[in-house]
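pinned: reference chain
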Amino acid sequence: MPGVHLVLTADDLLAAGVILGMKGERIDAVGGLGAGPERPVLARDRVRFVGEAIAMVVADSPEAAKDAAEAISFDINALAPALHLKPQEPNLHLDAPLNRAFDFAFGDQAQTDAALAAATHRVSVEVVHNRVTAAPMEPRAAYAEWDGDRLHLCVNGQGVWTQRNELSRMLGLPRDRVRVTNPDVGGGFGMKAMTYPEYVVLSHAARTLGRPVAWVSTRSEAMLTDNAGRDLVATATLGFDADHRITAYKVDLVTNLGAYNSQFGQAIQTELFVKVLTGVYKVPVASLTALGVYTNATPIDAYRGAGRPEAILTVERAMDEAARQLGVDPVALRLKNVIRDFPHLTLEGEEIDGGDFAGLLATVAPRAAGYDDRHAASRAKGKLRGIGVAAYIEAILGDSNEIARLVLEVDGGATLYVGTQSNGQGHESVYSRMVADSTGIPQDMVRIVEGDSDRIARGGGTGGSRSVTVQGTATRATVGAIVAGFEAFLAEEWGAEGVEFKDNRFGAPGTNLRLTLPEAAALARAKGRMDLIDRSEKITLDGRSFPNGVHLCEVEIDPETGGLVLDRYSVVDDFGVLVAPNLVEGQVHGGIAQGFGQAVTEWLVQDDDGQVLTGSFMDYGMPRASDLPMFGFAEQGVPTRTNPLGMKGCGEAGTVGALGAISNAVRDALAPVGVTRVDMPFTPNRIWNWIEDARAKA
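pinned: its structure tokens
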């Protein structure tokens, strides 16, 4: 075809010595590790989901490449698809009979069952977590180049070291001959943290052709190939004594992994779900069972919160149903069971060092003031109004290790090398302000270097709300090491004791000797003490932090159309010490918007043959600004002792709390018309049908 330079299939890659299979994480499951089928970077012999790449065409232009792709013909025998959340045939992988990826168990199931059997009250609820896609502002994109000796892959990701290591392994190149960089990234949400097949094939093409090769996903390609999120069904059962105190909690869930293990896929609804299994409540005994199944669908992986939104939605829906069935106020039931004594040891054995869960729940009443009047006004218009509350807790950290390198430059500025990667959160502003405040160097002279495996030795990347907590701690340690080194150096130079860095200047007691840090760096440079002006420090945080808060919202529903309006929304959070309050609030706003999207408008849907029906923004309902009210945001922070900054992380918290609050508000609004079950997403068509079904049964 005109303009075509290369066509690659799986057999071509194997012939060139490329390792075809990508490996995902396997968890410790009942009876051993979960199943470990490898994902081929190009399908070989079998296609397991719509969107799985079969061939790659490299051409002079996208148009030429598309024309050539359409000219490719192939023979394919259709098999019956496996699409349901249950053990089933046909088998997608030989090592996963009936498509069982894992059977996971946590807690003492026998003790939990016994406590539930003895409970005065038992409440069960089934919670459906709909499949969604990340849909970042900027789709996935990459370019690769080969200079005859080294490979360079530039990809809009969430860190460079995983990509470098995987490319090294699969292409048979030493790590020092692979460079990966991240440019400015327009949104990631967990989805961009992984290695994808395109990056491997793109890199091989660049090496084969000896020239740069670029690729950008279209939005429809993204809908088909980006790792999806959620997609599970959880059944939760709470036991209560006669005084309405929780005696036991049990969750049984089935989760869809899609066609393959993605990088973190097996861990999300197991190890990460368990981190916050019981929410903010004091639960004597609890258990979780999780069955993972493979289906003919895009793989599932981390999406804003990764396991924690699912766990909190499940327990908060269960608490709200319990309050309804027990005939008690939902906030009062939560207050009766909330954790009050700290430090608190979770059932998993991790310590929550501090918080004020009861104090945050106490903010609900004043924020809900006037609800009865608003409810009456909605009723007068023929509308249904509901109020929903959700108390959440997050377990953040990700990689607990991080390095910061700070170089004092000749121009009086500084360069900070970090192991995280901004995806639009404003990391550069936070890190440069931290350095400026602690050194006296003007913020506009503090340069941040991120996302380059050649220039930064290692890093944990961005994910799990870890960035400022871990990188900020490493930065603080590095600044401290530089200051300590200069204090000793100047004490020797000045022949003085007690040299101290105070008010952004070094000084010696009883003298008028004073130097700023840039001035001290200039002196060290003149003396040949380059070790003082280029320092790196590695830190490890021993414990994670637990952001928490209470979301409150009101919805209004038109029963004649099913249309839903999110009328009021407020949240009170405990993020410990706020490092950058304006950016924190922005993170919360964005998180709530994503939670609203999953709860109300978003749903990645397949038909009975596995074809994606929501493959564009014409079909997939992204939330819009007009869907959302102004959010009320307040902070009542209790500093944590798990890191020197006292902060708790905020990146995923908005989504973690929003799903439960909105779901409970919808359930409350529809209860008066006889609707007893609601499942996300709360689209007008679904709500209208629930109402009509309830009316027909009345």
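why pinned: Residues 491 and 499 are 6 Å apart (CA to CA). The mean pLDDT is 97.
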